[in-house]
């Protein structure tokens, strides 16, 4: 951690979030599939989700009357969008807010190493990396993309626990419980990102004999999960569809997919290296750089373990679907941080110069994105 840089004056969190919201808005309006400048969102998953949401608005119950295997929260969200005259625009706003939260938590992680201005530079670079990645070329409003802010918030909490030995207070434990509940009832297989760090947190807490804190945080986290779970259970119970919920969402998701063969594993492994050059470079660079820097502190080893297990689980489960690897995007944050740290050391910009550099850099990123974005083809389609 660069103590000199992190001790500099911080920007207001609200100002930072507004900047994140601004970048998210610009990039989704220009390059998002639900943007009004595009014809319509042709992704088949998105259309299925909207069909389920529209059915829910008209009295149909997901799993009982309509078949689709994602979690009920997905259909509640799309049903909310279908209440508006243009559901795609409503989904666009949700996408913008979700991605802006992802940028905000990424900034918080970067702020532990760099000053406010260099940390803000991370946002457009991260946006450029994501929007030029093959993880989202054929898809939009994917579940994996909506999970990014939760993953990044969880990563921030975990790093503070490992590096600063900061225990979770009851508010943070409750927030993490709510995050667990949201992921569980959205697509429970996405819990892979959170389970490994939670096991490490559990082991470290037991080794430190922090039984009271561990017990309290566990109960509060479970309370957060129950806050999300209880209304869903009640809804399906009142509609006599609880058996359908468990049969489709849990049983069929575990048994209906084809088994994973050695050939599929090899194909899935190779698919990872085609997710996009920038994303791949920053992801691998970030994990390696963080591991080397923090090896003696153990946080480097533990992050490497978490990444390798997450990667192995994705290779096993992705079944040649590119956007599954979007769940690893938060690891690219560390690669961008290391790049910015090198720039800050080499350039040694003062406060005024770093402001000027920041004001020019987003325009450069947007220009490059316009030239090289893989989603540009959407803007030239016939209306």
Commentary on this structure:
There is one protein chain. The chain is an all-alpha fold and 383 residues long. 70% of the residues lie in helices and 0% in strands. It has helices spanning 3-6, 13-31, 44-57, 72-82, 87-111, 116-131, 143-146, 148-163, 170-187, 192-207, 211-238, 242-255, 262-272, 277-293, 299-317, 332-347, 351-372. Helix 6 (116-131) packs across helix 16 and helix 6 runs parallel beside helix 17 (351-372).
| Portion in strands | under 5%
Main beta sheet strand tally, sense and closure? none
Envelope shape? globular
Mean pLDDT rating: 84
What's the helix count?
17
Q: What is the total domain count?
A: 1
Contiguous uncertain segments of 5+ residues: 376-383
Ends apart, CA distance between termini: 51 Å
In which range does the helix fraction lie? over 70%
In N-to-C order, the SSE pattern is: HHHHHHHHHHHHHHHHH
Report the C-alpha radius of gyration, rounded.
21 Å
Count of beta strands: 0
Question: Which secondary-structure class do the elements indicate?
Answer: mainly alpha
């Amino acid at each position: 951690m660069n103590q000199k840089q992190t001790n500099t004056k911080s920007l207001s969190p609200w100002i930072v979030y507004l900047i994140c919201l601004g970048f998210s808005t610009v990039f989704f309006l220009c390059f998002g599939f639900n943007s009004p400048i595009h014809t319509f969102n042709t992704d088949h998953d998105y259309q299925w989700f909207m069909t389920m949401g529209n059915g829910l608005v008209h009295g149909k119950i997901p799993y009982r009357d309509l078949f689709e295997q994602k979690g009920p929260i997905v259909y509640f969200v799309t049903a909310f969008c279908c209440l508006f005259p243009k559901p795609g625009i409503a989904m666009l706003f949700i996408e913008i807010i979700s991605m802006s939260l992802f940028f905000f938590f990424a900034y918080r992680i970067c702020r532990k190493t760099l000053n406010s201005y260099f940390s803000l530079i991370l946002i457009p670079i991260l946006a450029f990396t994501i929007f030029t990645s093959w993880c989202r070329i054929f898809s939009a409003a994917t579940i994996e993309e909506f999970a990014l802010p939760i993953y990044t918030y969880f990563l921030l909490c975990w790093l503070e626990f490992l590096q600063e030995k900061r225990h979770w207070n009851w508010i943070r434990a409750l927030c993490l419980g709510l995050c667990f509940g949201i992921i569980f009832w959205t697509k429970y297989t996405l819990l892979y990102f959170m389970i490994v760090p939670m096991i490490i947190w559990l082991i470290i807490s037991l080794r430190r004999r922090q039984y009271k804190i561990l017990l309290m945080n566990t109960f509060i986290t479970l309370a957060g999960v129950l806050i999300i779970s209880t209304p869903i259970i009640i809804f399906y119970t009142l509609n006599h569809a609880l058996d359908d919920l468990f049969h489709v969402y849990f049983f069929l998701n575990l048994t209906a997919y084809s088994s994973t063969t050695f050939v599929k594993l090899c194909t899935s492994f190779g698919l990872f290296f085609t997710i996009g050059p920038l994303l791949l470079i920053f992801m691998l660079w970030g994990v390696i750089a963080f591991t080397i820097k923090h090896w003696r502190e153990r946080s480097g080893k533990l992050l490497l373990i978490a990444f390798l297990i997450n990667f192995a689980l994705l290779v096993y489960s992705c079944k040649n679907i590119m956007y599954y690897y979007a769940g690893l995007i938060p690891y690219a944050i560390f690669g961008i941080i290391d790049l910015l740290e090198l720039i800050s050391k080499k350039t040694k910009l003062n406060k005024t110069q770093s402001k000027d550099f920041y004001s020019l850099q987003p325009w450069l990123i947007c220009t490059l994105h316009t030239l090289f974005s893989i989603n540009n083809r959407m803007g030239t389609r016939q209306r």
